[in-house]
Design goal:
The protein is α/β, with parallel strands linked by helices. It has one domain (about 1-274): Metallo-beta-lactamase, Chain A, CATH 3.60.15. The protein is built from nine helices and 15 strands. It has helices at about 30-35, 60-65, 85, 90-100, 115-125, 125-135, 185-190, 220-230, 250-255, and strands at about 1-10, 20, 20-25, 50-55, 75, 105-110, 135-140, 145-150, 150-160, 165-170, 175-180, 195-200, 235-240, 265, 270-274. The strands form two sheets. Strands 1, 2, 3, 4, 5, 6, 7 and 15 form an eight-stranded mixed beta sheet that branches. α7 (about 185-190) links the parallel β11 (about 175-180) and β12. α5 (about 115-125) crosses α6 and α7 crosses α8 (about 220-230). It starts with a strand and ends with a strand. Bound molecules: zinc ion (2 copies). One zinc ion binds near residues 82 and 160.
Length: about 270
């Protein structure tokens, strides 16, 4: 299984770094052209890969096209409705509806309940009827699971102040876990338990000061990310969506005080073999 980082920026895209988005693909080891960032190999012995676009943050649709074609996606999975995870669904709709990329059948879209209505509200009255022709929508409202080709997906609710979900993807006994946007919470630990790679956000530079009126936490600090990975006994930790006040190197150093395993910060274009 391959995890490709399309973008990690929060809460707005930056030059050279889109907002949250990843590709998860079934399949074997990296081929030469994948490592150079080219399109997927179409060699005679190449196995078709199931491909999932995980979070459609601003700028990720452009990055996705470095690695695959929008119309060739097997599914799109959206962690929660915030624009830095969903905004490119709006232009994906244009691409799939009005361009040469229009697929033969709707693309599977798995996302929080009500997501399609929110897209329709922005796109305008005609879109409400047309969206189901573009996206075959599966709403998430609690714990759930499905299969996309050889990839087994499972998700559960996490703590982020809006309906938000963490994800695991498994293939051949190997498992990726992704926090989406989330504060530390027991359901994320459960999802991440024994993951071979845990991709976890670190959207807080510091935890918000507690007070009776303060909202519940919505993100991890780097220290939290290390603690969650340790609690879950994840084999490897990749930090993403890191608060702008913290450099990736500092975030890794801070997280490493709480996690003993391999640890790094995601960067756009990075590919992880799981
Ligand atoms: Zn969010
Ligand atoms: Zn976010």
């Amino acid at each position: 299984m391959l995890l490709t980082v399309l973008g990690t920026a929060t809460p707005y895209p930056q030059p050279g770094n889109a907002c949250s988005g990843y590709l998860v693909q079934s399949g074997g080891p990296l081929s030469g052209d994948r490592q150079s960032g080219g399109p997927l190999s179409g060699g005679a012995d190449a196995q078709p890969r199931a491909t999932i676009w995980v979070d459609a943050g601003t700028g990720t649709l452009a990055e996705l096209q470095r690695h695959t074609r929008l119309a060739d996606l097997d599914a799109i999975w959206i962690s929660h409705r915030h624009a830095d995870h969903t905004a490119d669904l709006l232009v994906a709709y244009y691409a799939l509806r009005f361009s040469e990329l229009a697929p033969k059948r709707p693309v599977r879209l798995i996302g929080p309940e009500g997501l399609l209505d929110r897209l329709a509200a922005f796109l305008g009255p005609n879109a409400a009827a047309l969206l189901p022709e573009v996206f075959d929508f599966t709403p998430m409202s609690g714990w759930g699971e499905t299969e996309v080709g050889p990839l087994a997906l499972a998700w559960g609710p996490v703590q982020h102040g809006v309906p938000a979900f963490g994800l695991t993807v498994a293939e051949n006994g190997r498992r990726l876990a992704y926090s989406g946007d989330s504060a530390p919470c027991i359901s994320l630990e459960e999802l991440a338990e024994d993951a071979d790679l845990l991709l976890i956000e670190a959207g807080y530079a510091e935890a918000p000061a507690g007070s009776e009126t303060a909202e519940a936490p919505a993100h991890h600090t780097p220290e939290d990310a290390g603690r969650t990975a340790s609690q879950a006994r994840a084999a490897r930790l990749v930090l993403t969506h890191i608060a702008n006040e913290v450099t990736p190197a500092v975030a890794v150093r801070r997280a490493s005080a709480h996690f003993d395993g391999p640890l790094e910060a995601a960067a756009p274009g990075s590919v992880y073999e799981i």
